[in-house]
Amino acid sequence: MQPRLVPWFSFEEWEKTFEQLYSFDVNEQQLGINRVQSWAMRGKLPQAIAVTAQLVSAGQRVSNGIHNSQEESHILAMALIRFVNGIVDAAQKGAVAASVVSVAESLGLPTWIIELRHDVTHGKFPSLPYLMKGRNEALEWLRYNYWIIQATAAKELDVKIYSLLETYQIIMKQLMDSGESPVESHDLQETLTNITVSLTMSDYPDVLIPKLLLDGNLVSSTKKNRVAFGKLLDDYNLNLWEPLITCCESTWPGFGKVLFESIIEYNHRCDAGKSGQSFQSTLNAWAKYLLSRFLIKATDFEVDETVLLCLEVQNKYTLDLALHIKSQATLSKSVQALLLFAAKSISISNRKLDHTIESSDIEITVEELQDELSKLRDRISIIHPKHTEPIDDDMDIDVNKSTGWARVTDWVSCPIGSLPGSFTVQDLTLDPSFDNLDWLHEQGWLYVPIIGLNTSQKSQDTNEMEIHTIQEPDLKSIAKRVQFL
């Protein structure tokens, strides 16, 4: 089954963007426009989303009042043309393109918007209010014919998958009680088929996996069926859910890895006090099962990166999972050292840790750590051969050395772009006479244009503009108009 690629990360992101684009708050609208622009950079952006953002943006540009009426008309007209053409082009089918009018009518687009698009295409611009009315009508059409339909379908799918999971559990518990094989159960196979055909490769991470992580699914709502901290998955939970996990992995290769990473993310963002320690302990047991069954044997499994992913948020659950990975695969020395540090830090901060973590659990010695440190220092010395030793702020520095940094003992004024000692510092102090406007005028250095005088003209000899000076003695009253030449 080929995946249906979409530019958004989750349905929640899509739904939030829908709310922002149709918000009455201009700032919220802009956030929605920005999000759509980022989606467009990823590709595969539906035309309905693209034209919605363009229409909202056009309305903002008209409302801010920085354009004249002609520019505002062109902005709205272009948005409406893109709306009609974008929707019609996406709906074109067959080798021969149908007319814009016929396709638009089949989609339920208002006839007057089609006529409006035809007029502006041929340079006949109606009034600005009429264009704004067309823009608002287009947004409403998109709301009901794309956004709400998609949101409703997503929520209906959400309810359907939840119901199918309940049906699955009922059937599996009956099979476990009777001892019948799941493979021979027609009802179970039909339920599994209904789950897989209802979802695509892009749907299941947002629809199915979050439901599996809810209380009552992978983690039983009955605490006696949950797994203790640090333990592996028991037969009851494994027998109950393994048929579904196997079916999903067969339908969507990589399902087990996505579920494993989702459990790690859940451990990062959830508080054990709220979800319950037995809840997270059971999820950890599921992660260990998924690791052993799907990840360890995979050729593209990156063990160091997986451990680092676990330790992004350090708690006893992520540490327990990281130590289990270490027991199943070989870690690099640097990741082992990080794991040792995390183990000691968590053991100190959590004295009630269910099991003690010893240094012997991590296969790295102090000598090996010192060797790694020595290699790091050698690399630094190659990059910065002159600065291998730290400088004490209080130590004496030989200012006579010609290389390296030296501490400045005195400082004098100097022109911008030069350093003390590079050349003789010039005296930039101006004579006090330069503060006297009358004196500057007498010397011919102060010129004041006469406002409104039309006698200025280009000299025939020098081809330069003649500048007339003011003869009045009170030059300070026009000091703001001076020009130094």
Question: Any key phrases for this structure?
Answer:
485 residues, mainly alpha, disordered C terminus, flat, 2 strands, 18 helices
Number of strands: 2
The secondary-structure class comes to mainly alpha
Major β-sheet profile: 2 strands, antiparallel
Q: Order the strands across the largest sheet as they lie in space.
A: 1-2
Terminal Cα separation, in Å? 78 Å
Rounded radius of gyration (Å): 37 Å
Roughly what fraction of the amino acids lie in strands?
Answer: under 5%
H/E series: HHHHHHHHHHHHHHHHHHEE
Mean of the pLDDT scores?
A: 78
Helicity, in percent?
Answer: 55-70%
How many helical stretches? Answer: 18
The low-confidence runs, each spanning 5 or more residues with pLDDT under 50, are 351-358, 450-485
Element layout with pairings:
Layout: H1 11-21, H2 26-42, H3 47-63, H4 69-91, H5 100-107, H6 111-121, H7 128-178, H8 186-198, H9 204-212, H10 235-251, H11 255-269, H12 272-275, H13 277-295, H14 303-310, H15 316-328, H16 333-349, H17 366-383, H18 437-442, E1 446-447, E2 483-484
Antiparallel strand pairs: 1-2
How would you describe this structure to a colleague?
There is one protein chain. This protein is mainly alpha-helical and 485 residues long. The chain has helices at residues 11-21, 26-42, 47-63, 69-91, 100-107, 111-121, 128-178, 186-198, 204-212, 235-251, 255-269, 272-275, 277-295, 303-310, 316-328, 333-349, 366-383, 437-442, and strands at residues 446-447, 483-484. The protein contains 18 helices and 2 strands. Strands 1-2 form a two-stranded antiparallel sheet. Helix 3 packs antiparallel against helix 7 (128-178). The longest helix has 51 residues, at 128-178.
